[in-house]
Amino acid sequence: MSKKEGEGCVRGRKQDNAQTARMGDPSSDAGSSAVLSAFKTFQLELDSKHDKYERLVKLSRDITIESKRTIFLLHRVTSVPNVEEVLVESEAKLEAVRLKIRLIAEELRGEDLFQFHRAFTPGIQEYVEAVSFQHFIRNRSLITLEEVNSRLVFCREEPPNTKDAAAGQQGAPGGALSFQVSPTDYLLGVADLTGELMRMCISSVGNGDMDTPFQLGQFLREIHDGFAYIGNTGPYEVSKKLHTLRQSLAKVEDACYALRVRGSEIPRHMLADVFCSRAAVLDPDDAVA
């Protein structure tokens, strides 16, 4: 046997012995099991967060659907004799929406709100739009963020223990469960409200109501001025909504102009058709702008 072959055999035996020693070393097994245990914990934590995220997305979709149904119901106020009946029915629908928001609050108990914000923000924005639309029909004013949040305080069915009270949402009196709408979601919901007010304006004209369009025009101008003060300093989504807000304001002002200048020339039953056709003409120009 040559010298090189002998050195190769010795080197191979050393490697086999080192591998055997590592396999039999209890400290090596303990280190490996600790790493596996840590990654198993990470896996369970990530799976739990993903499942919670999907549940929040589903709740947000349900809130969006029910809020849209409430908005469709509220649009009937321009054509029914008893407005209060529509408002009472809409309040019942909004109460069902709040029960789903309560489920979101329970899911977020003890969690970082902003980790899951993208999962439920579409539903919350739609809820703000619906509740602000109802508030405007009833009071002819804009609901505040504090009023929105005051309706999202829920009483616990069982007295909370110390651990639950520490993990609950802040700002809930007496340990009650609450959900706080963020200022960004509130602003985005109000921006979407302007589109519904524009539709309400056209419907009012079609039903012979000549006063509501001017009230809506003044109200929309006040909202536009408020958003103009924010400008580009606010969230990015708010600046994107500002273009849609201006479109809605332009259509309402166009309707008010036609009522004031040409109202005596056009029969009342044809006014809505005229405004709809003029709004369709305005859309391509607004899109280019």
Task: Give a quick set of tags describing it.
289 residues; mainly alpha; two-stranded antiparallel ribbon; elongated; disordered C terminus
Can you give a write-up of this model?
- It contains ten helices and two strands; from the N terminus they run H-H-H-H-H-E-H-E-H-H-H-H.
- The chain is elongated and about 90 Å long.
- Helix 2 (26-74) packs antiparallel against helix 3 (83-107), helix 7 (183-206) packs antiparallel against helix 8 (212-230) and helix 7 (183-206) packs parallel to helix 9.
- Helix content is 76%, strand content 1%.
- Residues 162-171 and 284-289 have low confidence and may be disordered.
- Strands 1-2 form a two-stranded antiparallel ribbon.
Produce the secondary structure layout.
Elements: H1 3-23, H2 26-74, H3 83-107, H4 117-139, H5 145-150, E1 153-154, H6 162-167, E2 177-178, H7 183-206, H8 212-230, H9 236-262, H10 268-288
Antiparallel strand pairs: 1-2
Helix pairs in contact: 2-3, 2-4, 3-4, 4-7, 7-8, 7-9, 7-10, 8-9, 9-10
